[in-house]
Amino acid sequence: MSNITAEQEAKRYFSRELLAWYDEHKRDLPWRRSRNPYHIWISEIMLQQTRVDTVIPYFLRFVEKFPTVEILANAPEEEVLKCWEGLGYYSRARNIQSAAKQVVERHGGIVPDTPEEISALKGIGPYTAGAVLSIAYNVPVPAVDGNVMRVLSRYFCLEDDIAKNPTRIKMEKLAGELIPAGRASDFNQALMELGALICTPKSPHCLTCPVMKHCKGRINGMEEQLPVKTKAKPPRPEHRLLAVIEGQGEHAGKVLIRQRPATGLLARMWELPHVIAEESKKAGAGANLSEEAAMQRLSMALHNEGVEVRPGEAWMTAEHTFSHIQWYMRVFLCTEASAASTAEQNLVGAQSADELARRSDEKAEPASALHSGAKMDISDRQLPLNQVQEPEQGTLDIKLSGATAESLEHIRQQLAASAATDIVEPISQVAEQQEVYAAVPSTLLGEAFAYDYRWISQEDMEKYAFPNLFLKILQQYFKEK
Q1: What is the DSSP track for 117-186?
Q2: If we measure between CA atoms, which residue out of 391, 411, 393 comes closest to residue 402?
Q3: Predicted structure pTM score
Q4: What is the model's pLDDT at position 373?
Q5: Do residues 52 and 120 both lie within one domain?
Q6: CATH number for the domain including 29?
Q7: Annotated catalytic sites, by residue?
Q8: In terms of DSSP bridges, do strands 255-259 and 270-271 run parallel, antiparallel, or are they unpaired?
């Protein structure tokens, strides 16, 4: 009489039938053509939150550009981000390069093959560590992600919340027990493949599933209800105003871009200038701001950053969703302007004579502008500078809800109490040839931040890495031009 329990038989059946199915139906993917641990590592990072079909061309381009860990480690970050452009979640690219440097420094350029060493690398968590170790080195360790937890939840009819860490730990233990001796590489890939092709999130293809016979979720009619997962908090909507600033004179045919701060969301990526439509914690704040008020706010906010523009017209809308926030962008076409003309625009609707006088006094004393609190016009400067400080993260906080006399008077009082100043900082001589501008304004709240600004043509776009949202807007702009 056999001592094998029904649960043990279900586990053996699962592993046996899954591998037989995988051997016959596995997809031919570029990173599966060898067990190169570097290639497998890159592919696993790229596949996080991204479809296989999308990843393939990026993967091929990436390993062609950076064929070894050493080359990746020594590459300029800008090149790495540019090669990643369009994939999103850009911290992944930075973490990959940081980890590559660790691999070169600590392991002589060889991706480590132990759980302790590989888990110590930047950006590598339990899943990625398990995937690289098992697929590249055939180490019998689990690689559990959302796909795998969905498959196991259904097959064993587990109703634990997969969004909770204890459930992930439980799933890792279970997955480890299922790995057949000597076939960790194929088994973990087979498990991922089943989740991607058959045991899909919605409308699973149970009739073609190789392990349907013992699937408790299907037998109990719960395949559509499993896995149990707490719904994530929906992203917070944020309405923003974005400027496509067209250059004039020597900058004709170009637009102004800026580099984001060194830390935080989309760190060190390039973007088009934009500001929050309305400072408020209320959902949808700024959504109903009139076009006139929106352009006035945009112009004044950029003025406080040291950028002088003349608002033109509303051009388009765009939106982008991050994991925690959703940007709704109203895009305005603007033109490069002088500080004098912008100062006059920012006073439209203001009735205060002393405000006009104060602005006039500021324009009359250019020699002391750097120390007086006046705004510096960087619109037509090319600054040969050489000691730029790395940007610090900061926020621009201007309480403006519309272009009314009352709101502008309120701003006048704030400015009088705590004037914002622009300190022009040095930039390297290499950047001198690229028309780089650095401004370090202080906000009304005294928070310091810095942006590098550059005028670029359509051809120059190849030199800079843009998040998808800004890339598409720029492409559309130059297409229409």
Answers
A1: HHHTSTT--HHHHHHHHHHHH--------HHHHHHHHHHTT--SBTTSHHHHHHHHHHHHHHPPTT-HHH
A2: 411
A3: 0.73
A4: 33
A5: yes
A6: 1.10.340.30
A7: 44
A8: antiparallel
